[in-house]
């Protein structure tokens, strides 16, 4: 019996027509699965199911998710993250309790990311707070100024004057939650087309609370706040993080965007 699978053109291009057709015919697709986004059971015999292909430098992993959680897509991830995902699938990944993790940033400044729930318009929203560990210079310049917020505004982030107002959705950007853990913040590929690429990527998947994950899967949206170095800090409690966000907004040092929850 054919499975109720969605295989996007990008996924088909990566795995080939023959493998895609076998999946759609039900030959290689699982009946039941754990959705790699919300971590609850799914059944491709009974409900629309997305195929999500994670591609690293040497490894590719095909995962399955509720179509209502995420669309079928190809997601580029670091090889070490993909190996970690494989270990998780096979039960070998160690769980590291943490709320904040820095990304691998190459020659760029390191961005710290903290997760938490933020009350906006009388409703709790899953949020990420991004703050560099040092000032951000504009690419190609040697200036000593901090261009972090201007660069983000050029990408479509909006200045925040009131934390209690929900920011607008930023098209093409998304937050990648894989196997119940935070992996990356994705931005559109070069020229706005093709597969998304990582703007921020965790050294290792960042564990989020059950409440954060539940809220994210309910709204399918994550609020992403960003502030210059020294504006927020790694606050140990969500109420302190909220206070720091409000202080940064009052000082004109906060931008934000709403982003859909993407690929597992």
Q: Rg from C-alpha positions? A: 19 Å
Number of extended strands:
15
End-to-end Cα distance: 25 Å
The class by helix and strand makeup works out as alpha/beta
**Largest sheet, strands/sense/barrel:** 9 strands, mixed
Principal-axes geometry comes out as globular
Mean pLDDT: 78
What are the low-pLDDT stretches, counting only 5+ consecutive residues below 50?
87-108
What portion of residues belong to β-strands?
25-35%
Oligomeric form:
single chain
SSE order: EHHEEEEEHEEEHEEEEHEHE
Number of helices: 6
Helix content: 10-25%
- Domain count: the total is 2
Region (Disordered): 24-46
Brief sketch in words of this structure:
The protein has helices at residues 9-15, 17-25, 79-89, 148-155, 210-219, 238-250, and strands at 5-6, 32-34, 41-43, 49-55, 60-66, 73-76, 100-101, 111-120, 123-132, 158-159, 174-178, 181-187, 197-207, 221-226, 255-262. It is of the alpha/beta class and 264 residues long. The two termini are 25 Å apart.
List the helices and strands and how they pair.
Blueprint: E1 5-6, H1 9-15, H2 17-25, E2 32-34, E3 41-43, E4 49-55, E5 60-66, E6 73-76, H3 79-89, E7 100-101, E8 111-120, E9 123-132, H4 148-155, E10 158-159, E11 174-178, E12 181-187, E13 197-207, H5 210-219, E14 221-226, H6 238-250, E15 255-262
Parallel strand pairs: 1-4, 4-6, 9-14, 11-15
Antiparallel strand pairs: 2-3, 4-5, 7-8, 8-9, 10-15, 11-12, 12-13, 14-15
Helix pairs in contact: 1-2
Features:
264 residues, 2 domains, alpha/beta, 4-stranded mixed β-sheet, 6 helices, 9-stranded mixed β-sheet
């Amino acid at each position: 019996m054919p499975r109720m699978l969605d295989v996007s053109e990008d996924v088909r291009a990566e795995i080939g027509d023959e493998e895609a057709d076998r999946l759609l015919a039900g030959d290689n697709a699982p009946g039941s699965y754990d959705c790699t986004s919300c971590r609850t059971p799914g059944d491709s015999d009974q409900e629309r199911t997305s195929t999500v292909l994670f591609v690293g430098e040497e490894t590719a992993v095909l995962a399955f998710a509720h179509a209502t959680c995420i669309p079928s897509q190809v997601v580029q991830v670091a090889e070490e993250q993909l190996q970690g995902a494989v270990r998780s699938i096979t039960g070998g990944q160690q769980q590291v309790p943490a709320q904040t993790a820095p990304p691998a940033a190459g020659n760029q400044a390191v961005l710290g990311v903290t997760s938490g729930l933020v009350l906006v318009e009388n409703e709790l929203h899953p949020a990420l707070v991004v703050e560099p560990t040092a000032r951000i210079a504009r690419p190609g310049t040697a200036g000593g100024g901090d261009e972090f917020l201007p660069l983000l505004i050029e990408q479509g982030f909006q200045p925040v004057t009131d934390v209690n107002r929900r920011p607008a959705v930023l098209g093409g950007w998304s937050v990648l939650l894989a196997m119940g853990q935070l992996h990356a913040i994705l931005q559109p590929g070069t020229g706005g087309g093709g597969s998304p690429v990582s703007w921020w990527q965790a050294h290792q998947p960042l564990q989020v609370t059950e409440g954060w994950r539940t809220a994210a899967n309910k709204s399918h949206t994550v609020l992403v706040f960003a502030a210059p170095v020294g504006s927020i800090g790694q606050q140990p409690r969500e109420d302190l993080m909220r206070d720091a966000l409000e202080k940064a907004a009052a000082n004109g040092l906060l931008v934000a965007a709403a982003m859909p929850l993407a690929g597992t």
